[in-house]
Amino acid sequence: MQERDGEVRLLRHTRREAVIVLAVWMLALVWAVGYCYLRGYRHDENSVVVRWKLVEPRTADDLKLIAGFPDWVFAGIVVPWLLCTAFTLGFCFFMTDDDLGPAREGTLDEH
Amino acid sequence: MSINISAESWQVLVAFGLYLAGCVALGYMSHHYLQKRKFMASYFLGDRGLGAWVLALTVAATAISGGTFMGFPSLIYSNGWIMGLWICSYMVVPLTTMVLLGKRLNQAARLSGAVTLPDVMRDRFASPALGIVSSLLILVCLIFNLVAQFKAGGLVLKEAMRLPPAAATFVKADVDKKGGNLVLAFEVDGTTDTQKVPLPSEKATFLKDRTQVREEQRQVRVVFDVEGETVEKVVPFPPAKLRVPWLRKPVETAYLIGLAIFTLTVVAYTTYGGYWAVTLTDLLAGLVMLAGVIVMAVLAVRAVEPVNGYTGLAAATEHLRQITPPEGEKGDLVYGPGPKHFLPLGLAFSFFLMWSIMGAGQPSGLVRLMSFKDARSLRRALMLIAGYYIVIYVSLLIIFVCARAMLPTQYLREIGSEGEPDSIMPVMARRLAHPLVAGLLLAAPYAAIMSTVAAFLLMISSSLVRDLYQRVINPTASQKTLRRASYAVTGLVGLVVMLGAINPPAFLQYIIVFTASGQGCAFLAPVGLALYWRRTTRQGALAGMLGGFVVVVGLYALGWINNHSEAAVREYREQAAHARQAEQPEPEMPSASTWLQENLRWIPGWGQKPDTAFEPLHLGGLDPLVWGLAASLLLTIGISLATRPDPALLAKYFP
Fold first, then answer.
1. Which of B267, B529, B327, B345 is nearest to A42 (CA)?
2. Between B559 and B609, whose confidence is greater?
């Protein structure tokens, strides 16, 4: 019975952890792809994003560098990557050390 | 046959040899450990005893393959900073590949005593059919993928050896019909062989009478006139080649030797040592790769020439800002979507999904999640791998952005280049470091390829021996029989794949992406839902598995048909226009291709001109994996809702 309680707990914890991971994944997707598309792509003056004033068209001459990276790479890729790495490290302390249960090596292995 | 290797190449080979000796020693140790354990669980799953370090580095080394160290660098070199967006979903890969399914999959495998992924699916739904289908999908995908990996292994060793060219007689040199390359003809052992070299520029004129043959150095000096300036190029004699009995064309000797050494080492330690050998060599490979990229990144940043007051990486970016790539405009290398519209928004989204979500559904990664010791090992491994990925991928980006700044035109497939972009990794290793260090740097891609190959070999072997032979054909097979069968199958598969890699098919990078997409779309949704959603049924899982795979295959097949028919129609139109101009009779119209191009226009993405003939159909601008994943998810959920789960299995897996 105690073993089954452990299984219930593990299922509950892993479901919760999976939901958090999917939320972080979604955030990272929106940040990286969204930001890089708006700030790191060159858009035509007639494109929707320019007409809606979400971005200004960029040229090779207005590129800014941060720590050697193009500004959009730094803000759209390096920063979220560092934050994701920091989150992952923090998440390791949040994750529970659930008991995975005994390995019931199949009878197939005993011949 | 005598083999002459330069002193520099010997030093590179010594560093290589040390790495290979380490792998073989680990294989030997693992074999002795195996003797004391239960064979199947130990040979295919490492006794479910992987600790944090081994787990972290084996997951990383399996995911990082030949493509990471050969194809990815060439793409950075060709396309610039946009490759940061292409690869950046690795920021969440530790979470998606290890946390999403890790503990639950490990628990499910322990509950049923499963040793392989098909085992898990078979036992979760008590369905031998599901086990067999899973095994067959893994077999088909991995065998194709392995041929590509073996080829990459042979190519790295060929680069490390750098054998001198063949003894040949120079015959003639002429510019080819399209006017982009100079073709040099040689006579080698009574047959004609050619070497092709791009012209130094579009305006170059070949000065035939100034061609000079240097017999001793086995090279030809060719001279061009480029707008009044003399430019010379040195072209080596053709590489030494060997005849393979069943092939029409001879194969490069250095590639054959490289392939043989690669096969011998990787097949030997995998066969002899099993899962423990594979994971321990992964640990060694992981450390070699990490050291290799860090050393190379530091050397590359220091080697970039300062410009406009910038130094280091800033100077490299500034160099890239000023470059106008072929068929592009200034700034293409520092902004999206990159040269030749490389990464439009739809593909940027698709690639984010590709690495982060497809990675979570790869059977080779999933089997590693079945083998860790306890939840604490998983947590610690997660910490290690998060730091590992950011160092490896950001370093690779930096190294090959610097490479483009240092060698702006030399390694493109264009006029003016010296070699192929795929050779940029070995070129940079040799350019930046002492030969002994270059040997270590070259060992990094080799280690990446070896670790992926070893993991895949074991997966194929387990599919055949455990999932098909032991579980379907002969459930009462003894330990001794299984042990012999496992050794024989692992060795035999390695040998068969090596024979396939002697004359590998073209478009290998696409085959790797295709098989990875196929496996991810087949397994991720059914396995994820089987573990977390109690309503999942075996019919739903089977439909999702087959549906995801078929959609990916279908979109690749449609792409292939589109590419061929589009090329045929385009060629016909060009020839017809040319004929009309010359008042000659028009060529015959390719009726089937024209019909396909005209009648399938309603398919979004149909009729677009592809970069290569194997490119898939990007339906709605998205990669096939997006559609495959969506189909697999919908089918698994839809069919499961229409059928009923087995109450006994629910009680077992969902207490």
1. B345
2. B559
